[in-house]
Amino acid sequence: MATIIDVAAKAGVSTTTVSRVLNDYSPVNRTTRNRVMEAIEELGYHPSSLAQGMRTQRTRTIGILIPTYRNYWYAELLNFIEQDARAAGYLPIVCTTEREPGGSEHVNTLLRRQVDGIILCWYHGIMTDRKYLSKIVRETPFVIMDQPADGLPVSSVYTNGYQGVKTLVEALIEGGHRKIGMIKYLAENSTSENRFLGYRDALREHGIQLDPRLIVHSDYSTEGGQEAASRLLASSSPTAIITVGDDMAIGALRHCYEHHIKVPRDISISGFDDIPIARTVIPSLTTVAQPIKLMAETATRQVIRHVEHPSARRQEFVFETSIVYRESTRFLNENGTARGRKRKKE
Amino acid sequence: MATIIDVAAKAGVSTTTVSRVLNDYSPVNRTTRNRVMEAIEELGYHPSSLAQGMRTQRTRTIGILIPTYRNYWYAELLNFIEQDARAAGYLPIVCTTEREPGGSEHVNTLLRRQVDGIILCWYHGIMTDRKYLSKIVRETPFVIMDQPADGLPVSSVYTNGYQGVKTLVEALIEGGHRKIGMIKYLAENSTSENRFLGYRDALREHGIQLDPRLIVHSDYSTEGGQEAASRLLASSSPTAIITVGDDMAIGALRHCYEHHIKVPRDISISGFDDIPIARTVIPSLTTVAQPIKLMAETATRQVIRHVEHPSARRQEFVFETSIVYRESTRFLNENGTARGRKRKKE
DNA sequence: ATGAAAGCGCTAACAA
DNA sequence: TTGTTAGCGCTTTCAT
User: Fold this and answer.
1) Residues of chain A with CATH 1.10.260.40
2) E runs forming strands in A196-267
3) Residues paired with B182 in a beta bridge
4) pLDDT per residue over B263-320, tens digit each?
5) CATH architecture of structural domain B61-159+292-320
6) pLDDT tens, position by position, A45-84
7) A161-290+324-339 maps to which CATH number?
8) Is B82 in CB contact (< 8 Å) with chain A?
9) Which of A196, A213, A262, A271 is deepest in the core (most CB within 10 A)?
10) How, if at all, do strands B61-66 and B91-96 pair?
11) What is the mean pLDDT of chain B?
């Protein structure tokens, strides 16, 4: 690979001048500039990001920590983050934490690479080492997604899952459902837990007793959802099942199909996230949608802002959800049907 | 961030010694080593990959070029590649090319970052600039996935899609299907085209005339598949539809559902890839499976091999597919049913 | 067993 | 408008 020295030699100027042309600052004579440009062209020269990073102490990379690529929600998120980061001249470097839930290992990997900032999609088990985390966030701009910052001096971007699920469950109750099953994730995962609390409070406010047999745990996977639905239906007979993730809901659809339980005739099913395939599965999935594009944009913009203005105020961004009613749910009475019809639907 | 100088100062040794401890070469006195380790620990020191990369001209990163994250096949691939790369001490850096099909822009981005090697998932439109590509592959280890190297001095990893589709179509024909629709991608995309040729030859060898109304084009997306199915069924009435990608097949399932065409009773549908959700969709999808884990492993191993042994011979790895029969296809006669039953099934 | 010093490719004071 | 020079943090001869 050609270096700046080669270019300088070829153009008959100093490396400084080449650098000036490259970075387009301070006046450079037109003819000199042209000579340099030509040399760059001919040599197929591209400045080394490594050397630039060493010198400027800025790499124009941001690290992204997600649990896995194998989840439409994160795929979608990455898609938008990459788009926005690129537009701002940054390159995202992604680490998945699925296999090493500790996470601090990955943060180190990113830090060693001198990433300028990190977007952390929290997850159960990850970064439980708060002492470590609270030290790191002082040195590197951080944005936490999916969870509140919880005292850490970082910006955070997440959704009001509590209200989303609560609204959905209220609609189901008003639609005549009383026995509503819940497939959730571990209580330690506050994202899942908040969604669960929305479910609990909706029931409570409608005077419905919480039935432990209607609550089962699972991971966020399709297989997990399928298996959880089987457990749920073995021990109780809900008229509706809600889940804290679309993948699990899709798994539940599959379980019902295999056991000749018609959705939504025999049972209503809903998810959370509104991943792209939610509208394609059969039947299409009622779900609580997060404004993912906006969230990605906010997180990216925010982390870059902190990089470029270290003293910028840390902020918390909480987005509201919207319920998307599709084929997988139905209301059991006139009232519910009527209310359902009034809602956003497709 | 603490530097090696800070560590050296704290431990009362030279930076050379610290480096020796870090890289674990040449004898270092036990007590000295311990002092250094302590200093490293106390300072929370991690060597800068940037500085290491500058000095050694090796960054232990590999660049991955894929069209998009929003496709289960690539998500799956990334998952395995990351796993294998990490195990070998390399960090993958992913660029998606969806929005800039030219691709060379992205290769430059990666090259500037001094990636040690690149895994390129070819795609229609990407890297049509062969002159550029043929220059680059001489400087940086490359592995091309999904396509043959086609004269370029690089290793390649792909599947015999021709044979996979041919076998599937033959089974369908023997199962009584005569009018078989095909949803493919552009002819310029050799991956899609090879799969198409398998279809064409299977028909030809069974004396079935190729009917242009049975062949429609689409992108690799779910929406595209849905829309393509609608076009296909508007102009002809196949008893089966095969596609060159699972996403498109899932879209086709959706189209049929919306138009009360029962799968597989009224029409059989199949995909290609065997993405994880193929077994979950309703009905579950018959598809041509690629040995993705093995392919990811091979590509990763191969690119690292070229990095570490520049003179290593370039190789071509062609994998065979296997047909996974699921619920979305049926045979129209005894013969087909019998043959179908004998096949790998789940 | 340890250290001094050069240099990887670039940028930014400072000088001219 | 252009060039000289120092130095970012590390590794690696070459001495000692």
Assistant:
1) 4-56
2) 215-217, 240-243
3) B215, B242
4) 999 999 999 999 999 999 999 999 999 999 999 999 999 999 999 999 999 999 999 9
5) 3-Layer(aba) Sandwich (3.40)
6) 999 999 999 999 999 999 999 999 998 899 999 999 999 9
7) 3.40.50.2300
8) yes
9) A271
10) parallel
11) 92
What single DSSP character describes residue A213? Answer: G
R_g of chain B computed on alpha carbons? 25
| CA distance readout (Å), B196 to A11, A223, A295, B165, B182 | 52, 32, 40, 8, 8
Look up the CATH superfamily of A4-56: lambda repressor-like DNA-binding domains (1.10.260.40)
Strands B316-319 and A240-243: unpaired
For residue B180 the two structure tokens come to 């078989």
Cβ <8 Å between A109 and B93? no
The residues, ordered by sequence, that sit 6+ positions from A61 with a Cβ below 8 Å of its Cβ are A90, A91, A92, A93, A113, A114, A115, A116
pLDDT digits (tens, 9 = 90+) for B187-224: 888 899 999 999 999 999 999 999 999 999 999 899 99
Q: What is the pLDDT of residues B126-144, one digit of tens each?
A: 666 778 888 889 889 999 9
Query: Helix (H, G, I), strand (E, B), or coil: what is residue A147?
Result: coil
Does the reported pTM lie above 0.85? yes
pLDDT for A127 equals 65
If 0-12 CB within 10 Å is exposed, 13-18 middle and 19+ buried, where does residue B157 land? buried
Average pLDDT (A132-151) is 90
Closest to B184 measured CA to CA, from B220, B134, B232? B220
Residue A92: left if φ>0, alpha if ψ -120 to 50, beta else—which one?
Answer: beta
The predicted structure's pLDDT at residue B345: 46
According to CATH, where is 3.40.50.2300 located in chain A? 61-159+292-320, 161-290+324-339
pLDDT at A24: 87
- In this predicted structure, what is the pLDDT of residue A335? 56
Using a 7 A cutoff on CB, list residues near strand D. Answer: A 12-17, 20, 26-29, 31-33, 51, 54-55, 57; B 1, 3-5, 15-16, 18-20, 22-23, 25, 45, 47-48, 50-52, 54-56
Interchain CB distance below 8 Å, B114 and A72: no
Those of residues 129-148 in A touching chain B at CB distance below 8 A are 135, 139
| Local confidence band at B254 (pLDDT 50, 70, 90 cut-offs) | very high
Peptide bond into A92 cis (omega under 30): no
DSSP state of A117: E
* Upstream peptide bond of A283 is cis (omega within 30 degrees of 0): yes
Q: Which nucleotide is nearest to B30 (CA to C1')?
A: C1
Q: For strand C, is any atom closer than 7 Å to the CB of A54?
A: yes
> Residue B336 pLDDT > 60, yes or no?
no
A276 contacts chain B (CB < 8 A): yes
